[in-house]
């Protein structure tokens, strides 16, 4: 498996967090013979295969450092932070139609500084380098665990430990695994935002295509 890694956030902030925190078919035919004609019954319905739904993100609260937080606070954090991770997963790697070149709103939940870093880490943080050469993506696993630094029973910082595995088809057929951490802070009236990340992405051939 070939692995590449994205950049880490500033040392001071990471050290602080690390110290505190030790994811239509069918129809019917009729007879044109007139009113007395015997109606022709519709053809028997034919079962058509149903596509397996894409798995939802498995999300949970991981470690909590500092003070304890309530169940309501835990649920609130999941409701606020997981959509940021999901937007990244979907926009950057697995959502929408393929082939494509862009990432939509994948990084709407990132700070301006983190978005600048992402532009230098597209090979790790997105499918952009291969997006126009793949015809589909099948998700195998998507998960996030939120490690929380709490002060006075309130969340002050969050580290999202993420895991995503998916298979691409088309000219580039790969099984890709993305793992790592997103570092989030809250402030400026904009809610939780990702200010840094430490992410790695690995790929292996899926068969029937190139792993370039």
Mean pLDDT: 81
Q: Detail the poorly predicted runs.
A: 10-51, 208-212
Our measurement of the CA-to-CA distance between the termini, rounded to an integer number of angstroms, reads 12 Å
DSSP helical segment count: 4
Radius of gyration: 23 Å
Given helix and strand content, the structural type is alpha+beta
The main sheet orders its strands as 1-6-5-4-3-2
Tell me about the largest β-sheet.
6 strands, mixed
Helix content: 10-25%
Query: Beta-sheet strand percentage?
Result: 35-45%
Cα shape: elongated
The ordered H/E elements are EHEHHHEEEE
Number of strands: 6
What features would you highlight for this structure?
212 residues, elongated, six-stranded mixed β-sheet, 4 helices, alpha+beta
């Amino acid at each position: 498996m070939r692995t590449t890694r994205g950049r880490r956030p500033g040392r001071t902030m990471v050290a602080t967090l690390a110290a505190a925190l030790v994811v239509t078919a069918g129809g019917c035919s009729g007879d044109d013979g007139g009113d007395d004609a015997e109606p022709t019954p519709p053809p028997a319905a034919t079962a058509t295969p149903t596509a397996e739904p894409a798995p939802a993100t498995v999300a949970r609260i991981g470690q909590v450092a500092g003070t304890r937080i309530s169940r309501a606070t835990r649920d609130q954090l999941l409701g606020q932070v997981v959509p940021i991770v999901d937007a990244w997963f979907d926009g950057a790697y697995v959502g929408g139609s393929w082939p494509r070149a862009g990432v939509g709103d994948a990084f709407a939940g990132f700070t301006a500084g983190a978005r600048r870093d992402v532009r230098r880490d597209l090979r790790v943080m997105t499918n952009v380098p291969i997006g126009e050469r793949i015809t589909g993506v099948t998700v195998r696993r998507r998960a996030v665990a939120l490690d929380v630094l709490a002060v006075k029973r309130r969340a002050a910082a969050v580290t999202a430990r993420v895991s995503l595995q998916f298979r691409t088809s088309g000219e580039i057929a790969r099984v890709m695994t993305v793992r790592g951490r997103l570092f989030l802070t809250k402030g400026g009236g904009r809610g939780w935002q990702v200010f840094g990340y430490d992410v790695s992405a690995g790929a292996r051939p899926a068969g029937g295509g190139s792993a370039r």
